[in-house]
Amino acid sequence: MNQKNLISVASFLLIVLVVIPLVIASSGRLDLYYTLTSVALLSVASAGVWLTFYIGRINIGQGAFSLMGGYVSALLITQLGINFWLTLPLAGVFCAFLAVLIGLPILRLRGVYFAMVTLVLTEVTRLTALALPITNGAKGITSIPLPTELSIFGVVLIPDFSQLENPKLAFYLMAVVLMCLSYAIVWRIVNSRLGHLCRSLQQNEELASSIGVNTAYLRVLAYSISSFFGGVAGAVFVAISQSIYPSSFQVADSVNFMLNCFLGGLGYVFGPMLGTLLIYLGWDFLFTTGKYQLLIYSSLLIVLMLLLPNGLLSIFDKKRDNK
């Protein structure tokens, strides 16, 4: 990473970890913490969807893995008494394992066929949560405690959220740190040898396979990492809401995860982050338009995608080309 990139990363971290909390505290708008926390977590799930786009697959099933991750975390906490912080990686690993089992057959499909199969996954997961006794059906799982203290050898790494004066700030910082780690992982994957191999799948799988690239392995690996992100994001949402229901993540959420990638830019690692921010805030901003909200929202998305088919971040490329 060159000096310019390091300065950009440092500036971004300074803004999200220091400047934004100070601005919110001075304004007294503590509700903004929840808004920005939701944006950060949704962008984590969207980063996973972007990774499957990177191997040439359209993933419309991330809502399924977010719902799975949420239920895994909730059950581990309420049934087994496991510390929330330990349930995060466990929820992610569970989703990644299921993604391997599901992905082995369906990742052979291409284009609309793979997309339609993933679209069904969210509804299947929702119906499964409704049917299983352990998930408590439509009543869901409620009264989930706030994240407790995490310590190692007597050293407190993370305090008990229930003892904090402002847990909203703690959730915000947790979500932002998770978002930064997720995008750092995706960026590292893309800029590694593994990323170059994944890019070859996007361009021509037959050609990549003919030169010895293990295409099946790469597809499953990317899909499992994608699902891991979805599961972790779902687990954190459960901690914030202290409840989970079969309707917590629906097909519409899976579609939005995909739209976040399109709007920000499929050719840019940080595209989903920008796309998530604009779609989430844009929808809230249009709330005042009442019954015309969906019409205006949909129209704006269509116009933006027609004008900028490569996403909003492609604006910077155009400016660079014009110089």
Quick take:
It is built from 13 helices and 2 strands. It has helices at 3-27, 31-54, 62-80, 84-106, 111-131, 167-190, 193-203, 205-210, 215-241, 251-264, 271-285, 293-307, 314-322; strands spanning 150-152, 155-158. It has a single domain, classed as ABC transporter involved in vitamin B12 uptake, BtuC, CATH 1.10.3470.
What this model shows, in words?
With 323 residues, this protein is an all-alpha fold. It has one domain (3-322): ABC transporter involved in vitamin B12 uptake, BtuC, CATH 1.10.3470. The protein has helices at 3-27, 31-54, 62-80, 84-106, 111-131, 167-190, 193-203, 205-210, 215-241, 251-264, 271-285, 293-307, 314-322; strands spanning 150-152, 155-158. The protein has a two-stranded antiparallel ribbon with strand order 1-2.
Provide the CATH top-level class.
Answer: Mainly Alpha
What is the CATH topology?
ABC transporter involved in vitamin B12 uptake, BtuC
Number of domains: 1
- Run of helices and strands: HHHHHEEHHHHHHHH
How large is the count of helical segments? 13
* Helical content class: over 70%
Largest β-sheet summary: 2 strands, antiparallel
**CATH-scheme architecture:** Orthogonal Bundle
Show unreliable segments: none
How many strand elements?
A: 2
Sum up the overall morphology in one term.
globular
Q: Radius of gyration in whole Å, from Cα?
A: 20 Å
Strand order of the largest sheet: 1-2
Which class best fits the helix and strand makeup? mainly alpha
Mean pLDDT: 89
What share of residues are in beta strands? under 5%
| End-to-end distance | 24 Å
